[in-house]
Design brief:
- The chain has 4 helices and 8 strands; from the N terminus they run ααβββββααβββ.
- By secondary structure, the chain is α+β, with helices and mostly antiparallel strands.
- It has one domain: 3-methyladenine DNA Glycosylase, Chain A, CATH 3.10.300.
- Strands 1, 2, 3, 4, 5, 6, 7 and 8 form an 8-stranded antiparallel beta sheet that branches.
- Strand 3 and strand 4 form a beta hairpin.
- Helix 3 crosses helix 4.
- It is globular, with a radius of gyration of 15 Å.
- 45% of the residues are buried.
Length: 193
Amino acid sequence: MLPREFYERKTEAVARGLLGKLLVRRGVEGETGGVIVETEAYLGEGDPASRASRGKTRRNEIMWGRGGLAFIDMVHGRWLLNITTERPGRAGAVLVRAIEPTVGVEMMMRRRGTDRITELASGPGKLTEAMGITRELHGTDLTDPSGPLVVLDEGRKVGVARSHRIGVGEDLPEPLRFFVPGSPFVSRARGNL
């Protein structure tokens, strides 16, 4: 289990650090999950692509709270899983873009209607559909060992590559997308939701 201190750091450090960690969703049907292979960092009010760019609202206020909370947001009709970062009072979140499915793979295949393992969770909307992550998990504390959504550190070491975020019209100059190079499970620029 990752402690609160892991999440209450710079958003870019958390986005990089989540690669190789195991994301698990515990539900009534069983567990689903996999190894995180792609993330994107969304900074505070100075980041034009961030939900926090125009200040605090009812929709995004969780981004100013504690690090390590699930921020479930809908984009293009699909739920997306973000994890809050930074210390309270400073906005930030990491979008979990893709996982390598390892837990409850058959259940994820049923939910997604495909048996192509590389297509199960290779995009943020695909990931939430496969894992059964919906708005009901908004605000879930990922540092709660008995919670329905957790991130575990199994000591897996992975390479890290960076690029600009996918599908972002107005982006910051620094590359804020982090991914495991060579992984067939990362999303692509088109059809990635």
